[in-house]
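Researcher: Next entry: Fe-S cluster assembly protein SufD (Nesterenkonia aerolata).
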Amino acid sequence: MTDTPSTEEVAGVEVGESRISIPGFTEEGENLAAEMNTAAEHSHGGLGESGELTAGAGSRANRHTGFDLAGFPEPTGTEEEWRFTPLKKLSAALSDEPTDSADGEPVAYQVSEGVEGLEVSTLADGQAPRGTVLQPADRAAAVAYRHVDEALHLKVAQGVELSEPVRIDITGTRAGARVNSHIVLEAEPNARAVFVIEHRGSAAFNGNVETKVADGASVSVISLQRWDDDAVHLGQHDAEVGKDASYKHISVSLGGEVVRLNTNFRYAAEGAEAEMYGLYFADSGQHIEHRTFVDHNAPRNTSNVLYKGALQGETARTVWVGDVLIRKEAEGTDSYEKNQNLVLTDGARADSVPNLEIETGLIEGAGHASSTGRFDENHLFYLMARGIPEKQARQLVVRGFLNEIVQKIAVESIEDSLTEALEAELEISGH
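Model: Predicted structure:
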């Protein structure tokens, strides 16, 4: 690894915008989670508010996963996995209940039709590839898996390159109505596809998405959370990336009273490239929470994680928890994760927790960074000195801050729509 300067030291690891360098790090590596469990207010390191280890704390390699709901008791809020989350608002989504269909289906699905090279079907429990990629990592995911008899399955045939994005539009029709959902996306070898999953309307939605990316394939998954103000959305999105394949997941969360997404990926072989990007804008009364996990379980793969958010309103709340685990067998890994938050008004709160575990010293590079702050007054001064009114100058700063993620989408119609939505958010706040 390159010995580069950085800006902050956490538990003996230099952390900042640059790659990390670990003095005395050997080829055998070491598990940084143990150190982070005894220090590091910056990373929390698996500690709850009490300062004692809680269930599920420590190394991500030791976190419980499985399909048996008994392994995921009702959370109390003291668990590391749930300590940031407003559990009182999630009782409908966490209860062991089927989809509420008493007054008709509470959610409508619309999937792109007539796409050559795309097969649309359903998968029962135990019918591969369902359950081969995603294993529930919390109670919400286990409940959703348990109560979906037939998962929606979209498969792109080998060598097919889809010219247009495949859309899955999910619209909640009843506020508070319980919905369980499971979607399986599959790209066969050397296929190329973009999947867009857009959530609108209102419901208590609990949804899993698992994506299998075969060797040489290229897949982008764009998940848009544009719910009404009273919606609740819990979800787990998992992917497995094959040899020499590429995978990109982009999450955009603008609507909903509570949105909590776990986004994870691992590798099936070497030579793959995987990316996760996120954009969120929280208003007063909203809780938006993103958790990411990159499992480097195979050698010579790369990963990049970048999440950006803006907050406005006295009770606006965002959470980002990012975990990267570089296992002993993952030699030649190159990995980086970063979270940035822009606080626009007093009272808004952003929690940002990057975690990094390295079990081998034979890597190309690894690092993480996190920042939360207000406007850069230098940027404002520069714009206002050139005759731009303060309100417009502030809008330009926010727009420029978030636009880096918008451009990663690479679907013009979605980029335009999100730009309009962000402009509306800024107008509401007066910034």
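Model: Note for the record: The chain is about 15% helix and 40% strand.
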